């Protein structure tokens, strides 16, 4: 069953999609009309069907040839000096500082906090609003990792996390 984002978190999800799309357009990977069509698809989706299963990339892929996710991660690794998280299952850190829905809305997984530095894995690094949200939320240095949508979506599956006792 899809996750239904609360009315408080839904605007964060839309802003995350918008600024992620803008980042893709700045790289020349999509056009602004592509973003508009994908966002229209997302906004018109009934709220009960909107959730972690739907990203700007999935909407773009439904509408066109989409974006090569591997190419995007390689570009970020080189241009932004970000590590790529490719391995196995991610297990989000359980904290009262953030909610599962905030993680889902931003496609971001806090993994750990080591010596005051947070380690976050995201599929939406290109979204300036995602980076700003987490910087403001955590108020500490952040080490970013980029990963695929499939890895992040699997890690943020609410039923799996609730079964493990996360975010309760």
Helical proportion, percent range: 40-55%
- N-to-C SSE series? HHHHEHEEHEHH
How many helix segments? 8
What Rg, in angstroms, do the CA atoms define? 15 Å
Strand content: 5-15%
Strand order of the largest sheet: 1-4-3-2
Tell me, what's the shape?
A: globular
Biggest sheet details: 4 strands, mixed
Query: Termini distance?
Result: 18 Å
pLDDT averaged over residues: 80
**Spans of at least 5 consecutive residues with low confidence:** none
How many β-strand runs? 4
Structural class: alpha/beta
Commentary on this structure:
This protein has 168 residues and is of the alpha/beta class. Helix content is 48%, strand content 12%. The protein contains 8 helices and 4 strands; from the N terminus they run ααααβαββαβαα. It has helices at residues 10-26, 32-44, 56-63, 69-79, 100-106, 128-138, 149-155, 158-164; strands at 83-84, 108-114, 117-122, 142-146. A 4-stranded mixed β-sheet has the order 1-4-3-2. Helix 1 runs antiparallel to helix 2. The longest helix is centred in the N-terminal third of the chain and has 17 residues, at 10-26.
């Amino acid at each position: 069953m899809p996750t239904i984002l609360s009315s408080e978190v839904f605007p964060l999800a839309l802003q995350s999609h918008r600024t992620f799309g803008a980042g893709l357009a700045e790289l020349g990977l999509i056009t602004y009309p592509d973003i508009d069509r994908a966002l229209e698809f997302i906004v018109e989706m009934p709220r009960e069907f909107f959730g972690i299963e739907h990203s700007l990339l999935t909407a773009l892929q439904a509408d066109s040839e989409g974006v090569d996710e591997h190419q995007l991660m390689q570009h970020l690794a080189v241009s932004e000096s970000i590590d790529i998280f490719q391995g196995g299952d991610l297990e989000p850190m359980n904290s009262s500082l953030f909610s599962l829905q905030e993680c889902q809305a931003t496609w971001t997984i806090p993994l750990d906090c080591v010596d005051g530095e947070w380690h976050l894995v995201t599929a939406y690094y290109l979204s300036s609003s995602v980076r700003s949200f987490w910087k403001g939320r955590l108020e500490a240095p952040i080490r970013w990792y980029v990963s695929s949508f499939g890895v992040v979506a699997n890690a943020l599956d609410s039923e799996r996390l609730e079964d493990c006792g996360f975010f309760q």
